[in-house]
Amino acid sequence: MRSRIHRGFTLIELLVVIAIIAVLIALLLPAVQAAREAARRSQCINNLKQIGLAMHNYHQTNDTFPQGHSQAASQVGYSGAYAGWTEWSAQAEMLGFLEQTPLYNSINFSFCSGYNYGFFCNSSAVFTKINSFVCPSDNSNGNAKFIASWGNLSIPPGNNNYRASFGTTSLAGWNNGPGYGACQPDPLNINGGQPGCLPYSTGVFCYWVSYGIRDITDGTSNTVAFGESLVGDPVVSNNSKRNNSVTGVTAAATYDAQDATNQLANGNLVLALQACTAAFKSNSNIANDNGTKWAWGAVSMSGFQTIVPPNSSTYQWNSCRSNCGGCSPDDASYSNAQSNHAGGCNFLMADGSVRFIKSTISFSTYLAIGTRANNETVSADSY
Q: pTM here?
Protein backbone atom coordinates (compact mmCIF):
# COMPACT_ATOMS: atom_id res chain seq x y z
CA MET A 1 0.00 0.00 0.00
CA ARG A 2 1.42 3.31 -1.04
CA SER A 3 1.88 6.10 1.52
CA ARG A 4 0.47 9.49 0.60
CA ILE A 5 3.15 12.15 0.04
CA HIS A 6 2.27 15.58 1.46
CA ARG A 7 3.69 18.16 -0.88
CA GLY A 8 4.47 21.70 0.48
CA PHE A 9 4.91 25.04 -1.29
CA THR A 10 7.82 25.42 -3.58
CA LEU A 11 10.01 28.48 -3.18
CA ILE A 12 8.61 30.00 -6.37
CA GLU A 13 5.03 29.54 -5.17
CA LEU A 14 5.88 31.13 -1.83
CA LEU A 15 7.46 34.12 -3.54
CA VAL A 16 4.40 34.51 -5.78
CA VAL A 17 2.09 34.54 -2.74
CA ILE A 18 4.29 37.10 -0.97
CA ALA A 19 4.33 39.25 -4.10
CA ILE A 20 0.52 39.11 -4.37
CA ILE A 21 0.17 40.11 -0.71
CA ALA A 22 2.62 42.98 -1.23
CA VAL A 23 0.65 44.22 -4.24
CA LEU A 24 -2.60 44.07 -2.28
CA ILE A 25 -1.06 46.01 0.59
CA ALA A 26 0.35 48.57 -1.84
CA LEU A 27 -3.12 49.00 -3.35
CA LEU A 28 -4.84 49.19 0.01
CA LEU A 29 -2.46 51.54 1.82
CA PRO A 30 -3.23 54.68 -0.23
CA ALA A 31 -6.95 54.06 0.27
CA VAL A 32 -6.45 53.77 4.03
CA GLN A 33 -4.32 56.91 4.08
CA ALA A 34 -6.90 58.77 1.99
CA ALA A 35 -9.67 57.70 4.36
CA ARG A 36 -7.67 58.89 7.36
CA GLU A 37 -6.92 62.23 5.73
CA ALA A 38 -10.61 62.65 4.84
CA ALA A 39 -11.43 62.15 8.52
CA ARG A 40 -8.75 64.62 9.58
CA ARG A 41 -9.96 67.17 7.07
CA SER A 42 -13.52 66.71 8.31
CA GLN A 43 -12.35 67.37 11.87
CA CYS A 44 -10.49 70.47 10.67
CA ILE A 45 -13.69 71.78 9.07
CA ASN A 46 -15.59 71.09 12.27
CA ASN A 47 -13.00 73.02 14.30
CA LEU A 48 -13.45 76.05 12.06
CA LYS A 49 -17.23 75.78 12.30
CA GLN A 50 -16.95 75.84 16.09
CA ILE A 51 -14.82 78.98 15.85
CA GLY A 52 -17.42 80.49 13.52
CA LEU A 53 -20.22 79.78 15.98
CA ALA A 54 -18.17 81.31 18.80
CA MET A 55 -17.38 84.35 16.68
CA HIS A 56 -21.06 85.01 15.96
CA ASN A 57 -22.18 84.32 19.52
CA TYR A 58 -19.54 86.81 20.64
CA HIS A 59 -20.95 89.29 18.11
CA GLN A 60 -24.49 88.71 19.30
CA THR A 61 -23.40 89.47 22.86
CA ASN A 62 -21.08 92.42 22.14
CA ASP A 63 -22.40 93.75 18.81
CA THR A 64 -18.93 93.33 17.33
CA PHE A 65 -16.32 90.66 16.65
CA PRO A 66 -13.35 90.50 19.04
CA GLN A 67 -10.14 92.43 18.56
CA GLY A 68 -7.28 90.62 16.88
CA HIS A 69 -4.97 92.00 19.56
CA SER A 70 -6.16 93.50 22.83
CA GLN A 71 -4.48 95.97 25.19
CA ALA A 72 -3.06 95.09 28.60
CA ALA A 73 -0.28 95.78 31.08
CA SER A 74 2.78 93.67 31.79
CA GLN A 75 3.30 95.00 35.31
CA VAL A 76 1.10 96.04 38.21
CA GLY A 77 0.01 99.66 37.97
CA TYR A 78 1.03 99.90 34.29
CA SER A 79 4.65 100.27 35.37
CA GLY A 80 6.51 100.65 32.09
CA ALA A 81 3.28 101.71 30.36
CA TYR A 82 1.33 99.21 28.21
CA ALA A 83 2.65 95.76 27.43
CA GLY A 84 2.69 96.31 23.66
CA TRP A 85 3.50 92.64 23.19
CA THR A 86 1.85 89.25 23.89
CA GLU A 87 -1.57 90.75 24.56
CA TRP A 88 -4.65 88.68 23.91
CA SER A 89 -5.87 87.16 20.66
CA ALA A 90 -9.35 86.88 19.21
CA GLN A 91 -9.20 83.18 20.10
CA ALA A 92 -8.57 84.00 23.76
CA GLU A 93 -11.37 86.56 23.83
CA MET A 94 -13.83 83.97 22.44
CA LEU A 95 -12.97 81.16 24.89
CA GLY A 96 -16.22 81.64 26.79
CA PHE A 97 -18.14 80.82 23.59
CA LEU A 98 -16.01 77.75 22.81
CA GLU A 99 -17.04 75.72 25.85
CA GLN A 100 -13.88 76.91 27.59
CA THR A 101 -15.53 79.07 30.26
CA PRO A 102 -13.34 77.82 33.17
CA LEU A 103 -10.20 78.59 31.17
CA TYR A 104 -11.58 82.01 30.18
CA ASN A 105 -12.38 82.80 33.81
CA SER A 106 -8.85 81.85 34.86
CA ILE A 107 -7.31 84.59 32.68
CA ASN A 108 -6.59 88.04 34.03
CA PHE A 109 -7.10 90.07 30.84
CA SER A 110 -5.77 93.20 32.56
CA PHE A 111 -2.30 91.73 32.07
CA CYS A 112 -0.58 90.35 28.98
CA SER A 113 0.15 86.67 28.48
CA GLY A 114 3.86 86.54 27.79
CA TYR A 115 6.26 88.42 30.04
CA ASN A 116 6.86 90.05 33.43
CA TYR A 117 3.94 89.81 35.85
CA GLY A 118 1.57 89.04 32.99
CA PHE A 119 3.39 85.80 32.26
CA PHE A 120 3.41 84.56 35.82
CA CYS A 121 -0.26 85.30 36.51
CA ASN A 122 -1.50 83.83 33.20
CA SER A 123 0.96 81.07 32.29
CA SER A 124 -1.28 78.17 33.37
CA ALA A 125 -4.02 79.30 31.01
CA VAL A 126 -1.73 80.31 28.15
CA PHE A 127 -0.03 76.94 27.87
CA THR A 128 -3.21 74.89 27.92
CA LYS A 129 -3.57 73.01 24.67
CA ILE A 130 -7.05 73.42 23.17
CA ASN A 131 -7.96 70.62 20.77
CA SER A 132 -10.36 72.76 18.74
CA PHE A 133 -7.42 75.03 17.82
CA VAL A 134 -5.43 72.11 16.39
CA CYS A 135 -5.79 70.64 12.91
CA PRO A 136 -5.15 66.86 13.14
CA SER A 137 -3.41 66.91 9.75
CA ASP A 138 -0.59 69.05 11.11
CA ASN A 139 1.88 66.48 12.40
CA SER A 140 4.08 69.22 13.93
CA ASN A 141 1.66 69.58 16.83
CA GLY A 142 2.33 68.17 20.26
CA ASN A 143 6.06 67.54 19.88
CA ALA A 144 7.68 70.84 20.77
CA LYS A 145 9.02 72.27 24.00
CA PHE A 146 10.32 75.82 23.86
CA ILE A 147 12.51 77.35 26.57
CA ALA A 148 11.13 80.61 27.93
CA SER A 149 13.71 83.29 28.69
CA TRP A 150 11.97 84.17 31.93
CA GLY A 151 12.96 81.79 34.70
CA ASN A 152 14.53 79.33 32.22
CA LEU A 153 11.41 77.18 32.35
CA SER A 154 10.70 74.42 29.85
CA ILE A 155 7.19 75.15 28.64
CA PRO A 156 5.07 73.32 26.07
CA PRO A 157 3.49 75.59 23.45
CA GLY A 158 -0.23 76.06 23.16
CA ASN A 159 -0.32 75.21 19.48
CA ASN A 160 -2.67 76.99 17.09
CA ASN A 161 -3.54 76.12 13.49
CA TYR A 162 -6.37 78.63 13.01
CA ARG A 163 -5.58 82.28 12.46
CA ALA A 164 -7.76 85.38 12.30
CA SER A 165 -7.65 87.30 9.01
CA PHE A 166 -6.05 90.74 8.95
CA GLY A 167 -6.88 90.97 5.28
CA THR A 168 -4.41 92.44 2.82
CA THR A 169 -2.62 94.76 5.26
CA SER A 170 1.09 93.90 5.37
CA LEU A 171 2.20 94.89 8.83
CA ALA A 172 4.47 97.91 9.19
CA GLY A 173 5.37 96.89 12.73
CA TRP A 174 6.95 98.49 15.75
CA ASN A 175 10.20 99.41 14.04
CA ASN A 176 8.92 100.49 10.64
CA GLY A 177 6.91 103.59 11.38
CA PRO A 178 3.16 104.17 11.39
CA GLY A 179 1.23 100.99 10.89
CA TYR A 180 -1.50 99.18 12.76
CA GLY A 181 1.04 97.25 14.85
CA ALA A 182 2.52 100.53 16.11
CA CYS A 183 -0.72 102.41 16.71
CA GLN A 184 -1.38 101.35 20.26
CA PRO A 185 -4.22 103.42 21.76
CA ASP A 186 -3.57 105.37 24.94
CA PRO A 187 -6.77 105.44 27.04
CA LEU A 188 -4.85 106.22 30.24
CA ASN A 189 -2.74 108.91 28.52
CA ILE A 190 0.48 107.27 29.65
CA ASN A 191 2.43 107.70 26.43
CA GLY A 192 0.63 110.69 24.97
CA GLY A 193 -0.55 108.73 21.94
CA GLN A 194 1.23 108.09 18.66
CA PRO A 195 0.44 110.64 15.94
CA GLY A 196 0.36 109.76 12.27
CA CYS A 197 -0.80 106.18 12.78
CA LEU A 198 -3.21 104.21 10.63
CA PRO A 199 -4.64 101.73 13.14
CA TYR A 200 -6.88 99.88 10.68
CA SER A 201 -6.54 96.70 8.67
CA THR A 202 -8.50 95.70 5.59
CA GLY A 203 -9.58 92.40 7.17
CA VAL A 204 -12.18 91.28 9.67
CA PHE A 205 -9.66 91.54 12.52
CA CYS A 206 -7.10 94.13 13.57
CA TYR A 207 -4.79 95.18 16.40
CA TRP A 208 -6.60 97.32 18.98
CA VAL A 209 -9.74 97.64 16.82
CA SER A 210 -13.02 95.67 16.76
CA TYR A 211 -15.07 95.29 13.57
CA GLY A 212 -18.64 94.06 13.26
CA ILE A 213 -20.92 92.74 10.56
CA ARG A 214 -21.85 96.34 9.74
CA ASP A 215 -18.23 96.93 8.67
CA ILE A 216 -18.15 94.01 6.19
CA THR A 217 -19.77 95.79 3.27
CA ASP A 218 -18.32 93.36 0.71
CA GLY A 219 -20.61 90.67 2.16
CA THR A 220 -19.91 88.19 4.94
CA SER A 221 -20.17 85.17 2.62
CA ASN A 222 -17.37 86.54 0.42
CA THR A 223 -15.01 87.69 3.18
CA VAL A 224 -12.48 85.44 4.94
CA ALA A 225 -12.55 85.54 8.76
CA PHE A 226 -10.18 82.67 9.70
CA GLY A 227 -7.82 80.42 7.80
CA GLU A 228 -5.71 77.46 8.75
CA SER A 229 -1.93 77.44 8.86
CA LEU A 230 0.89 75.17 9.98
CA VAL A 231 2.83 75.32 13.23
CA GLY A 232 6.59 75.75 12.89
CA ASP A 233 8.87 72.73 12.95
CA PRO A 234 9.43 71.86 16.62
CA VAL A 235 12.97 70.54 16.25
CA VAL A 236 14.84 72.25 13.44
CA SER A 237 15.19 76.03 13.66
CA ASN A 238 17.86 76.59 10.99
CA ASN A 239 16.33 74.68 8.12
CA SER A 240 14.05 76.12 5.47
CA LYS A 241 11.04 73.84 5.85
CA ARG A 242 7.87 75.32 4.41
CA ASN A 243 6.14 75.47 7.81
CA ASN A 244 8.92 77.67 9.22
CA SER A 245 9.29 81.44 8.94
CA VAL A 246 11.93 84.04 8.14
CA THR A 247 12.62 87.34 9.92
CA GLY A 248 14.70 90.45 9.37
CA VAL A 249 13.97 90.72 5.63
CA THR A 250 14.67 94.44 5.39
CA ALA A 251 14.52 94.32 1.59
CA ALA A 252 10.77 93.73 1.94
CA ALA A 253 10.18 96.45 4.54
CA THR A 254 9.77 99.32 2.09
CA TYR A 255 6.83 97.52 0.48
CA ASP A 256 4.72 97.19 3.65
CA ALA A 257 1.34 98.67 2.85
CA GLN A 258 -2.10 99.32 4.24
CA ASP A 259 -3.50 97.35 1.31
CA ALA A 260 -1.30 94.91 -0.61
CA THR A 261 -3.82 95.08 -3.48
CA ASN A 262 -2.11 98.29 -4.55
CA GLN A 263 1.31 96.65 -4.28
CA LEU A 264 0.20 93.86 -6.58
CA ALA A 265 -0.89 96.36 -9.19
CA ASN A 266 2.42 98.26 -9.23
CA GLY A 267 4.64 95.16 -9.04
CA ASN A 268 6.07 95.84 -5.59
CA LEU A 269 4.32 92.88 -3.97
CA VAL A 270 6.25 90.41 -6.10
CA LEU A 271 9.51 92.15 -5.21
CA ALA A 272 8.71 91.88 -1.49
CA LEU A 273 7.77 88.21 -1.71
CA GLN A 274 10.87 87.41 -3.75
CA ALA A 275 13.02 89.06 -1.07
CA CYS A 276 11.34 86.91 1.58
CA THR A 277 11.90 83.77 -0.49
CA ALA A 278 15.57 84.55 -1.11
CA ALA A 279 16.21 85.07 2.61
CA PHE A 280 14.30 81.90 3.48
CA LYS A 281 16.20 79.73 0.99
CA SER A 282 19.51 81.06 2.32
CA ASN A 283 18.56 79.91 5.85
CA SER A 284 18.86 83.50 7.02
CA ASN A 285 17.11 84.14 10.37
CA ILE A 286 14.81 81.13 10.22
CA ALA A 287 12.16 81.10 12.98
CA ASN A 288 10.17 78.03 13.96
CA ASP A 289 7.70 79.28 16.58
CA ASN A 290 4.90 80.47 14.29
CA GLY A 291 1.56 79.21 15.57
CA THR A 292 2.86 78.12 18.96
CA LYS A 293 0.77 80.55 21.05
CA TRP A 294 -2.99 80.65 20.51
CA ALA A 295 -3.35 83.29 23.24
CA TRP A 296 -0.89 85.74 21.70
CA GLY A 297 -2.67 88.36 19.61
CA ALA A 298 -0.20 88.71 16.76
CA VAL A 299 0.10 87.93 13.09
CA SER A 300 1.82 84.50 12.70
CA MET A 301 0.72 83.39 16.16
CA SER A 302 -3.04 83.86 15.96
CA GLY A 303 -3.46 85.96 12.81
CA PHE A 304 -2.55 85.87 9.10
CA GLN A 305 -2.97 87.84 5.88
CA THR A 306 -4.79 86.90 2.68
CA ILE A 307 -1.91 87.95 0.43
CA VAL A 308 0.05 84.84 -0.61
CA PRO A 309 -2.36 82.13 -1.91
CA PRO A 310 -2.71 79.05 0.31
CA ASN A 311 -0.04 76.33 0.10
CA SER A 312 1.87 78.44 -2.41
CA SER A 313 4.41 76.48 -4.44
CA THR A 314 6.23 79.71 -5.32
CA TYR A 315 6.54 81.25 -1.85
CA GLN A 316 7.15 78.21 0.32
CA TRP A 317 7.45 79.75 3.78
CA ASN A 318 4.94 80.27 6.55
CA SER A 319 5.61 83.89 7.48
CA CYS A 320 7.99 86.69 6.58
CA ARG A 321 8.81 89.47 9.02
CA SER A 322 10.42 92.52 7.46
CA ASN A 323 12.25 93.60 10.62
CA CYS A 324 13.85 92.23 13.80
CA GLY A 325 16.14 89.54 12.39
CA GLY A 326 16.45 86.60 14.75
CA CYS A 327 13.19 87.42 16.53
CA SER A 328 9.94 85.50 16.59
CA PRO A 329 7.82 85.88 13.42
CA ASP A 330 5.04 87.67 15.32
CA ASP A 331 3.97 90.92 13.61
CA ALA A 332 5.09 89.51 10.25
CA SER A 333 4.41 91.47 7.09
CA TYR A 334 3.26 88.29 5.34
CA SER A 335 1.74 85.34 7.19
CA ASN A 336 0.33 82.64 4.94
CA ALA A 337 -2.42 80.04 5.00
CA GLN A 338 -0.90 76.57 4.90
CA SER A 339 -2.10 73.03 5.45
CA ASN A 340 -1.20 69.40 4.89
CA HIS A 341 -4.45 68.93 2.97
CA ALA A 342 -3.83 68.29 -0.71
CA GLY A 343 -4.57 71.20 -3.00
CA GLY A 344 -5.43 74.02 -0.60
CA CYS A 345 -6.69 75.03 2.83
CA ASN A 346 -9.91 75.34 4.80
CA PHE A 347 -11.20 78.83 5.51
CA LEU A 348 -13.93 80.20 7.74
CA MET A 349 -15.92 82.94 6.05
CA ALA A 350 -17.40 85.84 8.01
CA ASP A 351 -20.91 84.38 7.70
CA GLY A 352 -19.80 81.25 9.58
CA SER A 353 -19.54 78.94 6.56
CA VAL A 354 -16.37 76.93 5.85
CA ARG A 355 -14.90 76.66 2.37
CA PHE A 356 -11.94 74.83 0.91
CA ILE A 357 -9.94 77.30 -1.18
CA LYS A 358 -7.59 75.83 -3.74
CA SER A 359 -3.95 76.75 -4.12
CA THR A 360 -4.66 77.70 -7.71
CA ILE A 361 -6.72 80.74 -6.70
CA SER A 362 -5.42 83.88 -8.38
CA PHE A 363 -3.63 86.58 -6.40
CA SER A 364 -6.26 89.17 -7.25
CA THR A 365 -9.20 86.97 -6.19
CA TYR A 366 -7.48 85.93 -2.96
CA LEU A 367 -6.75 89.54 -2.09
CA ALA A 368 -10.36 90.47 -2.85
CA ILE A 369 -11.94 87.88 -0.53
CA GLY A 370 -9.64 89.00 2.27
CA THR A 371 -10.87 92.60 2.35
CA ARG A 372 -14.07 93.48 4.14
CA ALA A 373 -14.89 96.80 2.45
CA ASN A 374 -12.98 97.29 -0.82
CA ASN A 375 -16.13 97.06 -2.94
CA GLU A 376 -14.83 94.18 -5.07
CA THR A 377 -17.28 91.93 -6.85
CA VAL A 378 -16.17 88.33 -6.54
CA SER A 379 -18.05 85.40 -8.00
CA ALA A 380 -18.27 82.35 -5.76
CA ASP A 381 -17.19 80.09 -8.64
CA SER A 382 -13.85 81.91 -8.93
CA TYR A 383 -12.43 80.31 -5.79
A: 0.87
